[in-house]
TrEMBL record, chains A, B, C, D, E, F:
Protein's recorded name: Ribonuclease PH
Residues that, per the record, bind phosphate: R86, G124, T125, R126
Top-tier EC class: transferase
Database matches in InterPro entries: ExoRNase_PH_dom1, ExoRNase_PH_dom2, ExoRNase_PH_dom2_sf, PNPase/RNase_PH_dom_sf, Ribosomal_Su5_D2-typ_SF, RNase_PH, RNase_PH_bac-type, RNase_PH_CS
Domain Exoribonuclease phosphorolytic: 10-140, 156-224
Keywords: Nucleotidyltransferase, RNA-binding, rRNA processing, Transferase, tRNA processing, tRNA-binding
Domain of life, per lineage: Bacteria
Subunit structure: Homohexameric ring arranged as a trimer of dimers.
Known EC number: 2.7.7.56
Database matches in Pfam families: RNase_PH, RNase_PH_C
Length: 244, 244, 244, 244, 244, 244
């Protein structure tokens, strides 16, 4: 029994609040338990310099936390004048993950900017960001498909989840902040709707892990991703089915 | 008749969603029409270097907009590596305004950090920030009063509003983004519950304004502030009345 | 009787030393009592990106203080690697004020750079900067009028002054550093030669102020602006009269 | 047959040039094929602020490439004034990996600084950095063990290698730059001498990968790590055997 | 005959305007022809970290140019957010030069901050800065001698001058901007009142120079330094003679 | 007799390891005693903005030290986010020195980037950088001469050396770190193969120096430069003789 009463292989309650902010082309507030992230997708009609004239699009992400998303106030990165290594790692991860399920040639010479702003954090902010950003991105791209007549470039569903080995060596799905702080091993998994891996990042700073433990963690992650994608399907409904 | 159907002297609908984020000592989501700002107040048990050993507290504010709070995506200040002049002006204004209604000696050697994060913008973000931040600050300070047994240091209510002269020379209260873009003269007024001025910032970039126009604008602002403080009173209820 | 022997409504001695630096198109050393600011105006034959192709000009200002303009040496902003919020606020104010009396379409696609460098500070540096910068700008623009045959784009005189409420609640015009440090309320007023307001910034960090006090402060400011504009008229002489 | 004539499961020639630079406590030049990295370990007698007084040590890493380590000259990060996201990711990875095989309490209140400077790059610079840095760190720590009489805090061997899926879907060990550029899937694996995982980072930007492919990649990585650790054992010889 | 009518070995008119700014402990406006530099000396009662507890003082310098000190407006270093290599070179040179004629142990644990702000430039700004800063420093130190009763720590006079080889291979003393732009070889020489070298920096970007040419340039520099030190002696008068 | 057993006028052992790094157009590892610098020359087919369309080339240099090139670890300039004044001075010096022996018009609209990375420091890193960078540059330019058929633009040999006055007033050639730390006077001299001066930088922070001492130092420097250029000639061999 976990500290919040969940089963080992149970997700926290997930909600997707679509069209949360009015200006972006796609906007979702994702809540995974007490973790809440505003995911906005913006479409820009040009690509970064390294892609100009290639006839392909690009997807890039930025991630940030409000200073009091956390229990102790953290200093604003704009005040420090630089973005931390942790933030850079996360935004690079979100961008790579989303690009894996979009046909960038079908997208055309456009950039999709993903902004993930964590307004309340309780563990799993990077995986919640990917799962929510996917939904915001699909909404934004659907508008493009409709208004510009391009072929739907999204090729699959996509979600992310954390798994880990707790302080008593128990296997855990979707760790909250307390569990994450206590964990011996922490792994983030990004998978598609067809069950393929996109990213796998496992780290055992407090402890190493065996091949067998890895296999058990991956089983747990596959279960969690499957549940998340069902929630995405329900939220996106007709939208994604008609466009795919 | 204004573009959103309001009277010249009518505020947009205002709502105060208390305890919006769970971690901060005080947290409010303020909505003024389509402008939405998360206002968080954090208490830190020390003061900046220039105040150490003076037996007085400090209140400081930071302000930021999500990139897609606006119609066009704006670049994140953390990515640019510096805070804009506009942001600095606003956060200095919020801090000064709040300090005017708090007895810093009663507060003791503590800093109150105010974070105003605009998640959706439609004009008047700085005045909404002050009006919302006041409420978040009172909630945070009330907890201090209760837990530390200090005497209530908040000395008055405080709210802020914009007034302006529109493109057809009409006087306007609480300008939305469209009205603000078209305005000839724009003025931000911060006042207390007892009807005193705290800050007055009027600017006529497109046009100058006469002493008589100034007087009419101030009449309008007084009316708006009065309405806002009534909303604050209702939201804070017992909290402020019992602590004052 | 004030600490330097002035009447409440009396300006400090003002001098305008024209053509102080040889390179700029317009250059003035303004002294207001012990406050001394070098105001240089430079003309550049292009506009910032947001104005390109609009057929309009732009006026922008930078403000700085020498490290020992003040009683205690302050750290150079170039050494700190960033410009303070106070500096940004002031340079934005100077730019807005000057743009209010110039017809930017008559100016054509040119930028006027105003540099206000305070070499000695004794209160009122931002208002002295505006009053002096106006004169430097007129000199620079007059050369343009002569050499390029454009129509004189300067539409009015412009000056700025501070007023305030002192520690004994006395109303004061043109506060020096000591008076400014002691003041309960501080207000900066920018007005045109025809008596219209351009900017009004009043702040009561130590105290709030009533509508009646505001009115008395504005009366005082109008008197001071009138005196300053007379000094500008004398200094500019034929220059402005023939070109207007 | 691979472009450089290797078998699919064959490492590039590896050499470890010990004591390469004279000043550091530990120094190694590691060559993995044409990739060459100077790995220096420095010992500092204090820890970062977050660990002070905890009685534990710390290990941190910095990574950099000379501008012409690469085929095209890259801009120096000191000239740009900021460290890229890629660099931050790599230096965080190196630090975490090394900390996993050191008992930080035995190390005592000391920091080991690892500097990995790539002087020539041909793929696999982050894994070569970890493998070489481990050796430099052991040399530095051995000196501490000898001079300070602490118990040997290094608990296991440690090496890292890349595996991937090539453009023709072939599985590859230790990809060079050309193979890495062409790869569909790229994975970096850090393991200990006892065959446990420390870090696992797999990414399929061009393609996703199945659970079965993951298993084949991990088999390949285990083989490569085993070979690397044998090379480390030979290089460290008595040093590590007598101190463990 | 030179472009401004001087002899080859003739200085431009030099003036030293003592006590130019009221706040600093020492302040001089030096004019060398059209080059004008405000030199301020400030005394701080502590030393930088690397000297704490050594019982010695320190002298450090900062140098800056107003944007319109030059013919074309240059961007402010505070706006660019960093100090240029040229500025750093010059401020390091000024600091070293002044330290060479001060007994830092007699100075005691104090820092003298030298600020050289060029308000108008016409060549030779770094040498004018040194010559003027020496005078400002002596004034500031004299006050220390008087108020703190320390023994006079200034050990000698100090001045600096430029020499060069012009476009027609003529030898020139004290080059103005035009001459400096045309010069084949440019050399800055800092010397003491007793004729010893403190700094010698010669550079021949457009041309190299022979040992014989070097000797002729040094003869010229010695003559110029001698003239400058006579001017310093006259300006400082009793001050330096009674304190030495 | 010097601390490392050399004569006063004797260089440390010098070696030039050509083609040290495989990617750059020119690459040399220069060792001067225990000082080791990797000098890479890169050719870029465009020039900086200020030279565009002038039909001339440019040579620019960057200099850096690995953190443990020194006895105590120094902080990486990329981590500090800015390049130090010392680094800037050195890289400006290297660039100027190399430009003095290249006909930039013959070079054509190309930039040669010189990167000098000190991997081990024991005094004289800036002079070793110039001497080594010259060789790397000649190798790179020779390839241009061959592949593009331009006329050889290198006009002379070039080397640099330090001379100084030691703590016992002895004259010293090629100071190592210990000698440099103890020296009263330190001078860096850059000369051509035909015995002309390119740069001369002498500084006496601890002591001043007379005209006669200067002459003795220059004699010593000429001897050292002569020896260095003989070593360059041997290393470059046919390369430079056939191309000149």
């Amino acid at each position: 029994m976990r500290i919040d009463g969940r089963e080992a292989n149970q997700l926290r309650p997930v909600s997707l609040d679509l069209h949360f902010i009015k200006h972006p082309e796609g906007s979702v507030l994702i809540s995974c338990g007490e973790t809440k992230v505003i995911c906005n997708a913006s479409i820009e009609d040009r690509v970064p310099p390294f892609l100009r004239g290639e006839g392909k699009g690009w997807i890039t992400a930025e991630y940030s936390m409000l200073p009091r998303a956390t229990n102790e106030r953290t200093i604003r990165e704009s005040s420090k004048g630089k973005v931390s290594g942790r933030t850079m790692e996360i935004q690079r991860l979100i961008g790579r993950a989303l690009r894996s399920v979009v046909d960038l040639e079908l997208l055309g010479e456009r950039t999709i900017w993903i902004d993930c702003d964590v307004i309340q954090a309780d563990g799993g902010t990077r995986t919640a960001s990917i799962t929510g950003a996917y939904v915001a991105m699909v909404i934004a791209i659907s508008k493009l498909v409709e208004s510009k007549g391009i072929k739907m470039p999204v090729t699959d569903y996509l979600a992310a989840i954390s798994v880990g080995i707790g302080k008593n060596s128990e296997l855990l799905l979707d760790l909250n902040y307390q569990e994450d702080s206590d964990a011996q091993v922490d792994m983030n998994v990004v998978m598609t709707g067809t069950g393929k891996f996109v990213e796998l990042q496992g780290t055992g700073e407090e402890a190493t892990f065996s091949r067998q433990e890895l296999n058990s963690l991956l089983d747990l992650a596959e279960k969690g991703i499957h549940d998340l994608i069902n929630i995405q399907k329900k939220a996106l409904g007709e939208l994604i089915s008609e466009t795919k």
